[in-house]
Amino acid sequence: MGENWFQREFLNGRRLAFNVIFYGLHFFFFGYGWHSQATNTKLAALNALTFSVWTSRGAGLVLAFDGGLILIPMLRNIIRVVRPRIQWLFPADENIWFHRQVAYSMAFWAMVHTTAHYVNFFNVERTQVRKQIALQIHYTQAGGISGHFMLLIMVLMYATAHNKIRQQCFEAFWYTHHLAFFFMIGLYAHATGCFVRNSVDPDYIYAFPFYSTEHCLGYESWRFIIWPGIAYFAERVYREFRARRATRLSKVLVHPSGAMELRIVKPSFKYVAGQWLFIQVPEISSFQWHPFTITSAPEDPYVSIHIRQVGDFTRALGDRLGAGPSVVAAMTQAAMKGTEKDEKSGMNRGDFVEIDSHNVTLPSIRIDGPYGAPTEDVFRSEVAVLIGAGIGVTPFASILKHIWYRQKRGNLGSLRRVEFFWVCRDAPSFGWFQSLLQEVEAAQADPNFLRINIYLTQKINEDMLWNIAVNDAGAEYDPLTLLRTRTMFGRPDWMTIYGQMRQAIETGQYIPGSKSQLKTKVGTFFCGPSVLAKAIRDATVHHTSANVEFNFAKEHF
Amino acid sequence: MGNLVWHDLGHFIATTASVYAVWSSFFGLYFRKFFWDFVGGTLRDPGGIQPAPGAAVFITLIVKAPIIQIVAMILGIIILAIEVPVPQVKQLAIYRSFVVRIVLLIFQSFFTILIYQGTNASLWSMIALGCYTRAQLLGEVMEEAKENRGSGEKA
Lengths: 557, 155
Hints:
The structure holds two protein chains of two kinds.
Chain A: H1 5-10, H2 13-38, H3 44-47, H4 51-69, H5 76-86, H6 95-127, H7 134-140, H8 142-161, H9 163-168, H10 170-177, H11 180-189, H12 222-243, E1 248-254, E2 259-265, E3 276-280, E4 290-293, E5 303-308, H13 312-320, H14 325-336, E6 353-354, E7 366-371, E8 383-389, H15 394-409, E9 417-424, H16 431-442, E10 450-456, H17 462-472, E11 487-489, H18 494-506, E12 520-527, H19 530-543, E13 548-555
Parallel strand pairs in A: 8-9, 8-12, 9-10, 10-11, 12-13
Antiparallel strand pairs in A: 1-2, 1-6, 2-5, 3-4, 3-7
Chain B: H1 6-30, E1 42-44, E2 48-50, H2 56-64, H3 67-83, H4 87-90, H5 98-112, H6 119-137
Antiparallel strand pairs in B: 1-2
Helix pairs in contact in B: 1-3, 1-5, 1-6, 3-5, 5-6
Pfam families (chain A): FAD_binding_8, Ferric_reduct, NAD_binding_6
GO molecular function, one term (chain A): superoxide-generating NAD(P)H oxidase activity
Organism (chain A): Collybiopsis confluens
């Protein structure tokens, strides 16, 4: 890492503000919980336990706060709706990051709270301030039972949510994380045992919440933190309902490069370019939802996704659709070699084979979404720099198509120029995307509007080298991609690219007619690995000047 | 579906359990209590539970002198040294052995269940133990780390 921990956490304005507010609130709640226990004369008997009980009450209040926060970043639909309004305040796309911060904090305070309670119950037994032994409180009362259960659930959830496990076996993560349901029940029920009381025995009553607040003097925090839980539950029910609305898989196309294109018709599904959806195929698994980027533009009469058969789910899906791995493997092999237009068969690399739906009955599918992505904001800046790396190029299919549709309608917003970068190791394996690029490129009336830059980072073999050497010179189309744009080899140097762009904008060459005193907004939209993201973000930050503002947005997938 | 590598999962759970074991046995040094003292014990007010005479050996080892706490703590530190791992341990062959971990986790599970603070550590050790046992039965192996692989930090 180029920067150390201190620089990252404290020398960055936004991160510093987050740290101060987030951890400040935690310490505030801890202090408040501690103080209100220590000074409560009604709880004098408990206060005989001194530090341990103050600590446990303080940490308990902090945990309640965390329990209220943990579900908020998971309210995907609500975030999608409020996102445009709150984008200036905090990065709404970093919701998973926030979820993780709350989880880390929760693990720490759970440690504090549990440790304190172990001391509490030890001393309750020793001094007999209540006539019971420690293990009775631990294993026969609501607070103890739910607490131990929540700890166990946390271990399982945290362990399976680790990056490593999630990538090996998404299902293990997905199913285990649904233990959250029981965790939240445990959280809301944690205080129902009436441990914090000023009476000898718990004061249970027959009406909800089944204990009397006259003698049970907890913080009643569940009254506040249950709302995100209810909202999340409602959202899941709504997602289920929405997913069940009429959906039809209308067509399956197999591209020679090995990607399957699923065209889905769902009239109730409204989305904008660059968003993604969850897909479920009940015949393969009736519980799993898999995220895919939408590759069609909102103007298209269908919703399409492109799937490469790389994982269990996608291979099973390929088999089911009659486009099994063997069929596709052969096609991929051919495409990987960078086959030319074959004159005899008349097959273009961009062509596709439609799966004959008379032989195979198409399975029923369900889709859920759409969910947001920063690429919705393309039309708000004058210059859009779209950077896709590897498979991360998929959201730009939708965006480029959408730009193309809007170009035809003459409705481009403030967008004046588009720079499209595609960094990938083996371009030929994304044949379907090339055919799309070909269409978009061919449709350009203004040669300056869209510029396509393709960077091939793979080591090229001898065949390909000859191919390039022989075919490239003087040819109208690039031999590899069949685009008019030349393919470049090696990794792009972002600092230089952005530096040149800034210079061109400042001297007024880049956008004809732009006034130099106006600030030009250049939005960068990136989808790909985070190491590359950091390099590009550094370049945008470095080159932002009084006249040119470079923004950076990263899509998570 | 999916290809869960059990020893990777076991690694995370064993690490958590061992941290818990070290932390709980540290508190066990100050708040000494035999977990099973309620068996045949009598409750006295004040003074708490008076263990049965049959448990005298555990009272000696846990309450009078915190021997078991210290043993549990050392075991936890050893497991952490293997799991985290300490660079010196990483070069040894035992670092890649599941059997060593299984044996250590059995002992950790046994010692922590004896002390009042250690029940969760014991339970989680048993879960980690299950993961490693399954890894061993499925014939998973831990690959020897390759040298000079680079950190992959640069774009």
